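Researcher: I've got a protein sequence and the SMILES for magnesium ion. Could you write out the 3D structure of the bound complex as structure tokens? I'd like something to compare against our soaking experiments later this week.
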Amino acid sequence: MDAEVQATPTTPTVREAGEFAVVAAVTARLPQSALVLLGPGDDAAVVRAPDGRVVVTTDVLVEGVHFRRDWSSALEVGRKAAAQNLADVAAMGAVPTSVVVGLAAPADLPVAWAESLADGLRTECAVVSVSVVGGDMTRAGQVVISVTALGDLEGRDPVTRSGARPGDLVVVAGRLGRSAAGLALHLRGDAGLLQRHAELAAAHRVPAPPYAAGPALARAGASALLDTSDGLLQDLGHVARGSGVRLELDAAALEDDVRALAACAEELGEDPWAWVLGGGEDHALAGCVPAGTALPPGVRVVGRVVAGSPEVVVPGVARPGSTGWDSYR
Ligand SMILES: Nc1ncnc2c1ncn2[C@@H]1O[C@H](COP(=O)(O)OP(=O)(O)OP(=O)(O)O)[C@@H](O)[C@H]1O
Ligand SMILES: Cc1ncc(C[n+]2csc(CCOP(=O)(O)O)c2C)c(N)n1
Ligand SMILES: [Mg+2]
Ligand SMILES: [Mg+2]
Ligand SMILES: [Mg+2]
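Model: Sure. Here is the predicted complex with magnesium ion in place.
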């Protein structure tokens, strides 16, 4: 159990406290950003929509599928839940404006866990200067967290998955494969391993999406963009099919990511290329820009767009067994 939970003086369960007391305790930890005209406490929140259009995205995290309470603290789960949604907003080239959270929890969940979850959501939202403006709470057999993020396009067109054209360059912002390496470490469950590669384990529990690169790439004229949630090859496959183009990745441009995982992979007897090309949950941003585009800070070229059958290839590297996560496979 995490330090935040143990440090809380009283640890009643949500059954003992009751829904409304937990909601009050949680919303008390969620101060509102300047974009919020009416925050938690009424039937709905009211948030400014500066652009007149609203970007909206939602992702569900299920205990045992997306996180484990014995691997991650409540604070880390909250950060990750917010991060993966905020990354989806960035992947449209938008800036987030607010977040709404649904929490389903077993009756014996400590209230302190729900409070730390709120702290984690608040902490990650603060990275992009937004707040949690509301949510819902109900009972379930395991913890389920449903996050919805809203965003603002600042007057630009959304950057979709379908605008890549032959001649464009493939670009990435953020690191690849780190979450998959961390997942492998947690699956082994060896304390020494987790300690030796603590940074990678932490990268699995709390991803660090390059939020600013989304709007920056949109401003620069990006033709396609998404975040890497399932695995680079699978995610870029959506761009290839959506745009009707072939993406040729340059192995040399991905070698830094592979090198950063090499020691961990060696110790685990695993292939770092499989993590970089097929590992999910880094929430890096990947997409395409016209050749000659001035690249925003933190954005690197990893390949090129050519005419051909819509697929993603990495000449010289064996295709990993898994090109990405599928919840049902
Ligand atoms: N149950 C659903 N009902 C309606 N639309 C859905 C549903 N599930 C997914 N979608 C839509 O399908 C598209 C792809 O969803 P997907 O969840 O794969 O994208 P993502 O959220 O970027 O990735 P990830 O969930 O891996 O982080 C999105 O536009 C999403 O809104
Ligand atoms: C306990 C535990 N086991 C496995 C994983 C790995 N995992 C779960 S979902 C996902 C991709 C995105 O899924 P979705 O498309 O559902 O958002 C990955 C790589 C994890 N995070 N926690
Ligand atoms: Mg999704
Ligand atoms: Mg996405
Ligand atoms: Mg997915």
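Model: The chain has a mean pLDDT of 96. The first strand starts at residue 36 and ends at 38.
Researcher: Great, I'll pass this along to the crystallography team.
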